[in-house]
Structure formats: structure tokens, C-alpha cells
Amino acid sequence: MARRSPKSASPSARPRAITSAKTQRLGASAVTNGNRLLQDGDPNSAWSRRYADLARLHVDDLGGVDAVTEAQISLVRRCAAIEVELERLEGFMSRGAEVDLDSFARVSGTLSRMLRALGLERKTPNAGAIEAQRLLDMYAERDREKTQASNTGQQSTESA
Length: 160
What we know:
Blueprint: H1 46-61, H2 70-94, H3 101-118, H4 127-159
């Protein structure tokens, strides 16, 4: 199957840029206006799609496109690019390839600092709430099983 070039891809198939620009400006770049995700490259590649997904998720974490500044979007874009590259290196490691762990660790640290600068910090899940939900789910399942068993028992006595 022939691969479509970015120029022949329909506009709706291309990942859209993430921008806080409220209106399109005549003469502004396609990235600024939100018509393109990247200045250059294949917007339909797996790398570009993952990059767009991560950038959008981070913007959502910050309150959405209307709540962020262009400077924050710039940092989000850098974070997304670093994350995609770290994920790519993790894929290499999973296949047994050698990776410079010192560089991997330094880039991971840089990503962590950039995310903190954006206000996106790792939140430890509330263990008590997780355990309470697990117990509620377990008891709800038991109740469903009891109800189902009693309904089955009633049907067999009614048919006799």
C-alpha cells in the first residue's frame, strides 16, 4: 500500500497544531495559525501522532488551550518531543539494544524539571481511596452474584 505524502493527506487527517492564538493572522506561519503541527516533517508519522497526543494531554492538564500562554505551549511542545524520544529509547531497551543510560537519565531529569516548571507534578494516588474503591467493587460484584443466583433459584421453582 502506497504511503501518502503529507501534502496529499487531507487536512482533517493531519494532526492540528496546538496554539493559543485566538484568530488566524494574515502572514503568520501555519504553525502559529494552528494549520500545521510541525514546521517541517511528516505530520502523519507515528512520532508526530504521539507528539501531538502528549502535547494535547499536557495542555488539557493545564486547563485547556484557552487557559495557557504561548510560552507554556512552547514548553509543552519541548516536553512532548523529549517524551517521544525517551519512549523511543525505552523501546530500544525493551528489545535488548544498548542505550546510553547516563544521557537517558539526564534527559529524563530535564523533562521532570520542565514539567514542574509548567506546574505538572506527579501526584501520588490516595492509597486509602484506591483500597476503598476496590472493596466497593468487590462487594458490588458479590451482590450481583447473589442477586443472579437468587433470580435463577426463583425461576427454577416457578417452572416446577
